[in-house]
Amino acid sequence: MKVFHAQSQLKQHLQPFLKAKQTIGFVPTMGAIHNGHLSLLQQAMNENDVVVLSIFVNPTQFNNVEDLEKYPRTLQKDLELTEALSNKIIVYAPTVDDIYKGNTVAQNFDYDGLDNEMEGVNRPGHFDGVGTIVKKLFEIIEPTKAYFGEKDFQQLQIVRKMVQKNNMNIEIVGCPIFRQENGLAMSSRNERLSDQAKEKAAFIYKTLQSAKDLFNDKDVKDSVNFVVDAFANEVDFTLEYFIIADEASLKTATVKEPGKKYRGFIVVHIEEVRLIDNIALN
Ligand code: PAF
């Protein structure tokens, strides 16, 4: 399997594919590869001539130094898991310097307010960091399609906006959330949970599914109250938020409007790990 640490070498390697107008599928990650990432890679392989995986813990999207330091870095294991899926996948695992050239700062983006909701509220600058790294990676790799998990749905919509505003000719593919058998959404953060907590966390998806059922014939506030009450009775969890929002604008909904698509977004803490999930409601 080809693994590049320098963008100049990666670009050189990709040049013939671009010249031959072959399609390049791109899966950006911060490593700690799990089955969710592997499912993105599989989809990218099904739909493209070549697939590039990036593994890079991007400093500019962390607004908390401790979080950045604690983020798992497991390159050797990541490469083994990737190679077991296919040794044809091209890996780009750059250093901070290869990406930022000594200027590790985020660019400012205008996402038409998408970044003022939910995850943007408590993590100022986070989405500027995401936009900065994704744009840089797109410019280096020049993919035909790029794959993002719907678990970070706000990120997915923000990347779509960034691509549109910068007139980038890249198709952004949103992929369904990959779940453990018990419903827990796959995440690198799950590694930090005890087995017991992983089992208990099944409650998150179960509650989201019940909220979806309620949403069919009740008001927005009924679904919201249901989730808030459900977590109030669970001592192991702290609910940070449950919000029902319009998929396109990500603005919090208070009433259902015809023709709009809604999603329920949740953040829950268990064993001091912050878990995020969401569900399409209609
Ligand atoms: O979702 C992630 O892992 C990261 O935010 C991404 C898209 C790889 C950018 O660093």
Could you walk me through the main structural features you see in this protein, from its secondary elements to its overall organization?
It is built from eleven helices and nine strands. With 282 residues, it is of the alpha/beta class. Strands 1-4-3-2-5-6 form a six-stranded parallel sheet, sandwiched between helices. A three-stranded antiparallel sheet has the order 7-8-9, with helices on one face. The N and C termini lie far apart (42 Å). The protein binds pantoate.
Helix segment count?
11
Helix content: 40-55%
In terms of per-residue confidence, which ranges show pLDDT below 50 for 5 or more consecutive residues? none
Q: What is the number of independent domains?
A: 2
Tell me the β content. Answer: 15-25%
The overall pLDDT average reads 97
Structural class: alpha/beta
Number of strands: 9
CATH class of the largest domain: Alpha Beta
Strand arrangement, major sheet: 1-4-3-2-5-6
Short description:
By secondary structure, the chain is of the alpha/beta class. The chain is built from eleven helices and nine strands. Bound molecules: pantoate.
Structural features:
282 residues; Rossmann fold; Pantoate--beta-alanine Ligase, Chain: A,domain 2; six-stranded parallel β-sheet; three-stranded antiparallel β-sheet; 41% helix; binds pantoate
